[in-house]
Design brief:
EC number: 2.6.1.57
Strand content: 15-25%
Shape: globular
Cofactor: pyridoxal 5'-phosphate
Radius of gyration: 20 Å
Bound molecules: 4'-deoxy-4'-aminopyridoxal-5'-phosphate
Helix content: 25-40%
Catalytic activity: an aromatic L-alpha-amino acid + 2-oxoglutarate = an aromatic oxo-acid + L-glutamate
Keywords: Aminotransferase, Pyridoxal phosphate, Transferase
Function: Aminotransferase that catalyzes the conversion of aromatic amino acids and 2-oxoglutarate into corresponding aromatic oxo acids and L-glutamate.
Number of strands: 12
């Protein structure tokens, strides 16, 4: 017999990372994990190299330098900040801080696939509220789903994998309906890619609402996916609880220094984001001109609802040299990458049948 393990782990959904570009062909572009295609900035690389010289030491557990930079950048007290091993690490800390057996966690579905996993691990129950037919959060239905067991609600804005957003008025109306003792996590992993002025900045919501927590990451716009650093902005009791539930030393010194250097190089990094947003516009317009239905995306990826043809489409992409992210039976999420990769994608979509 093996050691007794928690029964909740038995049917836990497994996190499937986006496949890497092992196409066997001459080119392989990875458009499967919403990464930033630009290589690290030389200055950021230098700060990481310098930090690497002392990796025999533990990192600064309090992330002092990074906290101070973030505090200044967002105009929030350091006591309202918490860091973690990627924003998925912070999300797990949020679950640990708020939810356990008997508690309920509400989120839209489909959305970020880590939500059901970390909810299950916490012992709490997932309450998944289907997206609207237009692939947008159904905030009315989410508010209707609140019970006295609800402890946490995720609002993924923009939503992964659809790229769709919820706008100011509807989000404010929703937040008005959430009881004060329920934490609303606005997951803004793709915040920097938003160009729709009607989408509220979660940080502004947090300033007026003690039960709002904003989740951000250095993985996407800042290009530090491999270094694992994310953070939350929340009022003091929540931020303090996040620091308690963090894995000790979970953010390496390399990650801390890279994050600080990235904040200081923000203009250049956000310029790259601007170029990716232009690519997004180019790809979405081309696909629509080809006859595809593409939901309005404000992230660095787009969503094609291919249903049963999902795996065929993913295989066609792979054959052509780009790896995308299929959700079997539902659709394909394609990251906006470098122009050459996007061009290959558009060649596939041009010939792939639009309807059955
Ligand atoms: N939130 C959302 C919505 C995401 O899509 C992702 C990454 N796929 C994350 C959080 C986690 O990113 P990271 O842990 O790299 O910060």
């Amino acid at each position: 017999t093996s050691p007794r393990l928690r029964a909740v782990l038995d049917d836990i959904p497994t996190y499937k990372p986006g496949k890497s570009a092992e196409t066997g062909g001459p080119v392989g572009y990875k458009l499967s994990s919403n990464e930033n295609p630009y290589p690290p900035l030389p200055g950021v690389l230098e700060s990481v190299t310098a930090a690497a010289c002392s990796f025999n030491r533990y990192p600064d557990m309090a992330c002092t330098g990074l906290m101070s930079e973030l505090s200044e950048r967002f105009g929030v007290p350091q006591s309202h900040l918490a860091t973690g091993t990627g924003s998925v690490g912070v999300a797990q800390q949020l679950l640990q801080a708020t939810s356990g057996p008997g508690d309920e966690v509400i989120y839209a579905w489909r959305s970020f696939e880590a939500y059901p996993i970390i909810t299950r691990i916490s012992g709490a129950t997932s309450v998944q509220v289907p997206l609207t037919p237009g692939d947008v959060h159904d905030l009315d239905a989410m508010a209707d789903a609140i019970t006295d067991r609800t402890r946490l609600i995720f609002v993924c804005n923009p939503n992964n994998p659809t790229g769709t957003v919820v706008r100011r008025e509807e989000l404010e109306r929703f937040l008005d309906r959430v009881p004060d003792d329920v934490l609303v996590v606005v997951d803004e992993a793709y915040r920097e890619f938003i160009r729709d002025a009607q989408v509220p900045d979660g940080v502004e919501l947090y300033r007026r609402r003690p039960n709002v927590c904003v989740l951000r990451t250095f993985s996407k716009a800042y290009g530090l996916a491999g270094l694992r650093v994310g953070f939350a902005i929340a009022h003091e009791p929540v931020a303090a609880a996040l620091r308690k539930t963090a894995v000790p030393f979970g953010v390496s010194q390399l990650a801390q220094e890279a994050a600080i250097a990235s904040l200081r190089a923000e203009d250049e990094l956000l310029g790259r984001v601007g170029s990716l947003v232009c690519e997004r516009t180019r790809v979405v317009e081309a696909l629509r001109a080809q006859g595809w239905t593409v939901p309005e995306t404000q992230a660095n990826f787009l969503w094609l609802r291919l249903g049963e043809r999902t795996m065929d489409f993913a295989a066609a992409c792979e054959q052509a040299g780009v790896v995308v992210r299929p959700f079997p039976g539902e659709g394909v999420r394609v990251t906006i990458g470098e122009a050459e990769a996007n061009d290959i994608l558009m060649k596939v979509t041009e010939v792939f049948p639009k309807e059955r």
